[in-house]
Amino acid sequence: MIKKLSTTAALVIVLITACFAADITGKWTGKIMDQYDITYNFKVDGEKLTGSTTGPEGNPINIENGVIKGDEFSFSINIMDNTMKITGKVKDDVITLTMPGMNGGEPMNVILKRAK
């Protein structure tokens, strides 16, 4: 009986946590290396994250394999036939993205703020 009760309690906690995934739906803006403007349009549906950003030539780039759990998320984008995996964390109206560094260098962090 106790084992069954603790299993049920654990399941309820997991479900509650999933229900409180951060809602980052909308437009977010920032700068890469304090020089280049960047914009993301995110859409959250449960734990699924979709959306798009804009490439270097102004072309739309779709977010692929996006997942959000709580305040952390990850997704991939494809730029010039290279797939880049990006992770992020949201706190209030600020997102910190971590993306691979240029030419295999150190990963870089990019701060995004919710567009008004």
The tally of structural domains comes to 1
Oligomeric category? single chain
Q: Give the % helix.
A: 10-25%
Overall shape: it is: globular
CATH class bucket: Mainly Beta
Q: Termini separation (Å)?
A: 52 Å
Strand content: over 45%
The CATH architecture name reads: Beta Barrel
Largest sheet: 8 strands, antiparallel, barrel
Number of helices: 1
Rounded Rg? 17 Å
CATH fold-level label: Lipocalin
Widest sheet: strand order? 1-2-3-5-6-7-8-9
Low-confidence stretches are 9-18
Structural class: alpha+beta
What's the β-strand tally?
9
Q: Return the string of H and E elements.
A: HEEEEEEEEE
Organism: Mucilaginibacter psychrotolerans
Signal peptide: 1-21
GO molecular function, one term: hydrolase activity
Protein name: Glycoside hydrolase
Give an overview of the whole structure:
The chain is an alpha+beta fold. It has one domain: Beta Barrel (Lipocalin). An 8-stranded antiparallel barrel has the order 1-2-3-5-6-7-8-9. The protein starts with a helix and ends with a strand.
Task: Give the SSE layout.
Elements: H1 2-19, E1 26-32, E2 36-45, E3 48-54, E4 60-62, E5 64-69, E6 72-79, E7 82-91, E8 94-99, E9 108-114
Antiparallel strand pairs: 1-2, 1-9, 2-3, 3-4, 3-5, 5-6, 6-7, 7-8, 8-9
Give a short synopsis of this structure.
This protein has one helix at 2-19, and strands at 26-32, 36-45, 48-54, 60-62, 64-69, 72-79, 82-91, 94-99, 108-114.
